[in-house]
Amino acid sequence: MSGNRTFTMLKPDAVENGHIGGILEKITASGFKIVAMKYTQLSKRDAQEFYSVHKERPFYGDLVEFMTRGPIVAAILEKDNAVEDFRALIGATNPAEAADGTIRKLYATSIGENAVHGSDSDENAAIEGAFHFSGREIY
Ligand code: ATP
Ligand code: MG
After folding, report:
1. Could you read off the pLDDT of 62-96 as tens digits, one per residue?
2. Where are the beta strands (DSSP E) in 28-129?
3. Is 117 one of the catalytic residues?
């Protein structure tokens, strides 16, 4: 059975470019309820751990550098079929391949700086949410 929560980050490029409001509007207008949210900045260690699945990839160093260069917005979102529906809302990793109307099509600049993160499974949604939020911060 699919779960009803996913985890997202509005990445440093989206924050720098003034897109927090626009992206949150798309998210809530698409039926996601925000159950936890914070404005924060990842340390190098945080980013290395969060993206450790990519540590052998050639872009890992740039990814860690990018994700730590400024503040992000982290949030847990609730909706039926949350993981899959949110991945559809954000669009393909490469904004050049993202469908019209998706968040990455609207706000991402490149495959590396692609505005938003979305969990890729229920299991990772739970792990990533717990990475950023304690039980008391989830409503
Ligand atoms: P995310 O996990 O951030 O939601 P994703 O699941 O669409 O993105 P992943 O394959 O998990 O894509 O890659 C994680 C992140 O690593 C991407 O969002 C992007 O910032 C970066 N990345 C992925 N592939 C490349 C690449 N070929 N070149 C540069 N950066 C990349
Ligand atoms: Mg991913």
Report:
1. 999 999 999 999 999 999 999 999 999 999 999 99
2. 33-40, 72-78, 116-118
3. yes
Ramachandran region, residue 100 (left: φ > 0; alpha: ψ -120 to 50; beta: rest)? beta
36: which 2 tokens?
């936890």
Sign of dihedral through CA atoms 132, 117, 71, 5? negative
Name the pTM for this structure.
Answer: 0.96
Express each pLDDT in 34-69 by its tens digit: 999 999 999 999 999 999 999 999 999 999 999 999
Ligand 1 center to 136 CA (angstroms): 30
Pocket of ligand 1 (CB under 6 A): 54, 59, 63, 93, 111-112, 114, 117-118, 120
Q: How, if at all, do strands 72-78 and 5-10 pair? A: antiparallel
